[in-house]
Amino acid sequence: MNNTLAVSAARVESGSMGRVAYARIAPNEDLVQGVEKLCLAEGFKNAFVRGALGSLVDACLGTLDGQYRRIQGPAVEIVSLAGEVRAGSDGSLCASLSGVVADTRGRVYGGPFVAGANPICMTFEVTLEEWLPDPQQP
Amino acid sequence: MNQTSPSLRPPPLARSRTLMHPGPFNPQRIQSRHCDRSRHFRLALQPGLSLYDALVKPLAERGVSSASVTLLGGHLDNLEFCVAQPDPSGRALIAYTRPIQAGRAYMIFGNATLGKDAQDRPVVHCHAALRTEEGDIRGGHIVPQSCRVSGEPVTVLVTALEGFALRVTFDAETNMSLLQPQPLVHHE
Questions:
Q1: What is d(CA B55, CA B63) in angstroms, rounded to the nearest whole number?
Q2: Within an 8 Å CB–CB cutoff, is residue A88 touching chain B?
Q3: Which of A17, A127, A131 is best to mutate for the B interface (most B CBs within 10 A)?
Q4: Can you spell out the DSSP letters for B29-77?
């Protein structure tokens, strides 16, 4: 897992909101990497998730001890999702997504989504708002 | 993790599953559109109305027919939700179950998408976490026509999507009709 959120929380970044993108991402695409690729498609370098819902084949959430918890589907529904995408200095884009999911009986689980381990089941709808940091920040 | 060094150690993740859908694979995996600026609204869903009516009517009056909506917490009577399970008919991989009654429930938070169906009627696709009348914490697909805002108004944040439309459109791959971003037609 990455610590982008923890690092960036250590300082204040001023900026403004830019464009708003909506996407439907298709089955078997990975949730986290799909959001990163949506940013590539739309030319967003930094963005916040403004809304998301959909389903996963199975869900994989990170736990406090660095391990993972797998929630068996299909399908596991995404009931809430928060997160951001950040451009790294190495030319990469990294999405950090956290949320709550419900299993096939409606029981809920929460945590960070592990990149590469959360394939979309039927559909994933996501709205991203572009974040434009002000230039020349310390 | 750090005590053991071998780089040959297999990753701890269970490998994710790739499922086969009934229809032809669509090579376009991400259907996306954007608008350069978006209008935002804070909306107080009025008690006594269904979640559907409380959302759709005030937004329609402001010319909003496609939007992404964040629902903050609030009480809802007669809340019904569905979960997603393998489709017993085999027509699709997954189907929603029959509605499960949560009774006088508390919506902890939710997300909704406002769009249109094939007949141009507004559609609200809503997923939420909730506390049932019995006190269980559950989550799933909310039936927005059934539940009624009760007690205090429920606050929502609306991000209006303009320059394109969200429309329920048949998706051959999944053999289901799903909300998808589409170009505007003349009267929109």
A1: 13
A2: no
A3: A127
A4: -EEEEEESS--EEEEEEPTTSBHHHHHHHHHHHTT--SEEEEEPPEEEE
Q: Which domains does chain B have, with CATH numbers?
A: 40-169 (3.30.1330.80)
**Å from B41 to nearest chain A CA?**
13
Judge contact between B188 and B165, C-beta under 8 A: yes
Q: pLDDT (tens digit, 9 = 90+) per residue, A62-94?
A: 998 889 999 999 999 999 999 999 999 999 999
Q: Which of B164, B183, B180, B185 is nearest to B26 (CA)?
A: B180
| DSSP type of residue A35 | H
Task: Give B119-150 pLDDT, tens digit per residue.
Answer: 999 999 999 999 999 999 999 999 999 999 99
Rg of chain B over all Cα atoms, to the nearest angstrom: 20
A30 CB neighbour count, 10 Å cutoff: 20
Tokens representing A52 are: 């998301």
pTM listed for this prediction: 0.91
Q: Which of B128, B14, B94, B23 is nearest to A73 (CA)?
A: B94
| Domains of chain A by start residue, with CATH | 15-93+108-125 (3.30.1330.80)
CA distance A122 to chain B (A): 7
Q: Please answer whether residues A31 and A41 qualify as being in contact, where contact means their C-beta atoms are separated by less than 8 angstroms.
A: no
Query: For chain B, where are the E strands, in sequence order?
Result: 30-35, 40-45, 67-71, 74-82, 84-86, 94-96, 100-116, 122-131, 137-142, 148-149, 154-160, 165-171, 176-182
Residue with tokens 């434009």: A132
C-alpha B162/C-alpha A81 separation (Å) is: 23
Q: Does the pLDDT of residue A38 top 60, yes or no?
A: yes
- The ipTM estimated for the assembled molecules is 0.91
Of B17, B100, B138, the CB nearest to A57: B17
